[in-house]
């Protein structure tokens, strides 16, 4: 179905603002930055959004959808649950240098600024994190049902551990300006998957 001009303009604003918010953050991204990136005038942006807050929420949803789409594609190539988990690790191998959106992980970047002053954006971040955790948990539980993964493994706990370690590795790598810590975390996680999960 073909998008209307208004829908195309709205999508363009979101896509071109994604890198701005992901690199500069919510506080660091000005309306002028958005106007320069989109080539629109103030009325052209605010004809589609009520506020910078509204743009930020849509930008996060877009950035998360791009991340999820890439992760789903990486996992879909594999049948075995252990291989699916390793595919997630492989996806993140080059994530520091080749993120789905310029600036790195949108969940990590947006969560650094979200506190009690931005409850709407926080709600969207929590939804995204919970969705990722449920997906990881489901992969492990499916593996247990198919006798690929040890029944003694607590699927929810391992999913939290895996996700927290990956995000921590991304954060340390971003801070240091290289991917050494992320690679270390991914290697350790790979060893954990090989040693703790199989039957």
Explain how this protein is built.
The chain is mainly α. Helix content is about 75%, strand content about 0%. The chain has 9 helices and no strands. Helix 5 crosses helix 7, helix 5 packs antiparallel against helix 9 and helix 7 crosses helix 8. It is elongated. The model has no long low-confidence stretch (mean pLDDT about 95). Pfam families: TetR_C_13, TetR_N. Keywords: DNA-binding, Transcription, Transcription regulation. InterPro entries: Homeodomain-like_sf, HTH_TetR, Tet_transcr_reg_TetR-rel_C_sf, TetR_C. This is TetR/AcrR family transcriptional regulator.
Summarize the structure.
With 199 residues, the protein is mainly alpha-helical. The protein contains nine helices and no strands.
């Amino acid at each position: 179905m073909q998008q209307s001009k208004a829908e195309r303009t709205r999508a363009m604003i979101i896509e071109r603002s994604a890198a701005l918010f992901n690199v500069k953050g919510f506080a660091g991204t000005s309306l002028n930055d958005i106007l320069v990136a989109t080539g629109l005038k103030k009325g052209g942006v605010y004809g589609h959004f009520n506020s910078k807050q509204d743009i930020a929420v849509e930008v996060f949803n877009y950035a998360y959808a791009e991340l999820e789409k890439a992760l789903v594609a990486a996992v879909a190539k594999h049948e075995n649950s252990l291989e699916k988990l390793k595919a997630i690790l492989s996806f993140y191998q080059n994530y520091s240098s080749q993120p789905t959106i310029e600036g790195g992980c949108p969940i990590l970047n947006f969560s650094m600024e979200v506190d009690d002053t931005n409850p709407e954006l926080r709600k969207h971040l929590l939804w995204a994190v919970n969705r990722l955790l449920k997906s990881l948990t489901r992969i492990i539980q499916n593996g247990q049902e198919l006798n690929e993964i040890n029944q003694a493994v607590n699927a929810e706990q391992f999913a939290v551990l895996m996700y927290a370690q990956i995000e921590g590795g991304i954060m340390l790598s971003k801070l240091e300006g290289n991917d050494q810590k992320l690679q270390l975390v991914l290697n350790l996680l790979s060893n954990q998957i090989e040693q703790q999960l199989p039957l």
